[in-house]
Design goal:
heterodimer, A: alpha/beta, Rossmann fold, 2 domains, 5-stranded parallel sheet, B: 384 residues, 4-stranded antiparallel sheet, 12 helices, 16 strands
Amino acid sequence: MSSDLKPSLAVWKFASCDGCQLTLLDCEDELLAVADQLEIAYFPEASSAMAAGPYDLSLVEGSITTPHDVERIQAVRRDSKFLVTIGACATSGGIQALRNFGDVEELMSIVYASPAFVSTLETSTPISDHVQVDFELRGCPIDRSQLLEVIGAYLAGRQPVIASHSVCMECKLKGNPCVMVANGTPCLGPVTHAGCGALCPTFNRGCYGCFGPAETANTDAMIAALNANGMGDDEVERLFHTFNAWSRPFRSAPVPVAPPIRKTR
Amino acid sequence: MEGLNTVGLVEVLTLDGLDDVVRVLRDQGRKVIGPIVRDGVITHDEFDSVSELPHGWTEDQDGGRYRLVPTGTDEVFGFSSPSTSWKRYLYPERTLLIRARRDNGTVEVVQPQPDAPAVAFFGIRSCDLVALGILDRVFLDREATDPTYAARRSDVFIVAAACNRPGKTCFCASMDTGPTPRSGFDLSVRELHGDGRHEFLVEAGSERGTELLATIASRRATTADLDTAQALHGRAAASMGRRMDPQDPPLAALDPDHPRWDDVANRCLACGNCTMVCPTCFCNATEDSTNLTGTEAERWRVWDSCFSIDFSHLHGGSVRSTVKSRYRQWLLHKLVTWHDQFDVSGCVGCGRCITWCPVGIDLTAEITALATPQQSAGRKGVPS
């Protein structure tokens, strides 16, 4: 493929920690191949040379948390032929979506010395709440191999092989015994989207759901199992309320409402 | 006597004699795979000597629960179903089917030769041995023989082991699949334990089994040994924690709108654990991958589960979008339509799907409830 025909790549950041876009730079062995197949046109984290759009493939990291974000994501969408969200922030609102369960004014008064300078929305929301998304890649952070699979599939014009079933399936493909059954370790694997290769259960830890909800996640049955393994309601709430707290199945997990946050200063 | 193949050699071995069997198999160049303790469970892996087997361990298995428990004895085979089945050694989790390479406008497709290491299965339970027979029907006895399975299966040396301590989720006795192996083995071992004795009654079930057994220092089995083995068999058969009627209800007797389907769907996580641990579940997906430059492609076969949405994805979407429809598919295939397809039940009574279900769903209880007519919640004959 000659260079002038290369599809162009843009990498965008909204409210996020940068970990997912760094995953692209972490593709050390494959990075040259990526750069050979795609023109990296806009990637401020990696290069100050920023070409104007439109772009063939956009990777969008982060959630929408400010009035400025709301406008900017529309511009990104207009400039992108194929838009892929990467990571928990972009696909479900991220850890910062915990604000959605509380009072933002109150939170700002606790966190910032001068909240008057802060312009923020009351909620942190996924990209798909604002624009059409062509593919969502899960994880906090995303998995390097899965990112390469999405890019490779885009280049080949095929569907990416990204399973949406439970972590349990990956766990059993590895031959692991179930940590919940064998040790009574609370594990979100049965309701969590595959993609990590069952990293935590492989090391005898319970899954904490960083890839968000699996297809048809039955959170009611999951909570009953967590309770049966000795987890109290408050612990269950904390388990569901992390990086993917605002994803619909985890958000609606019927757990007690947390007590109001106390102002400490 | 239950399971005794009277044409084969029947000998009594000490623990050292049993170790000699392992040594001879290893000397034949085989990987000897058997039960070992790891990560808090009894699973299977390659081992070198009988000292690595789960001496003195049994398990407390129940719906959604597994704990290793010491027996307080030095029994080698004092457990029931290991956490993993044996299918992974014949039908691996991931199998490369083809590899293609594009170069200057030509495409070269290579079908790799199946990787078939010489192995021996040591200590396989009767339920799991019957499961291998079922997988043989699936992969070998059909119009299309599976080359990977055929290559791996052809030369497996099988040392079966009778089960003396069935677990709470076991029901091989009612399914007529155990607890003592009947056929399909080269050697079958029964552990004779108690009253200060620790010996192994070993029966040959094949010519090569007889040949191997003849090389091991042993003594001829006496009537008393056979009586002891028979008594252990009877005690094991009477201590199954679960039971199921092998004459599964005909499909017509099962109401597709029985309210129990909704009930089980509310409890089911659709996580797929039951199908992954099942010794007979064989469904798989085909995955294609390409490299970034588009010069290389691979096609892999990967274990799949009827509990995933993609499993029933046809043009336009999944035909089994609800958990209810997926659980119904699994149970009806396993217990009912499997008979039509393979002339045998898909269930061997190992109990793994009960133990390893994180919420302890018990197919023996479900099928009993489903076979009991109830007021239907939905319209007759309209699948939901």
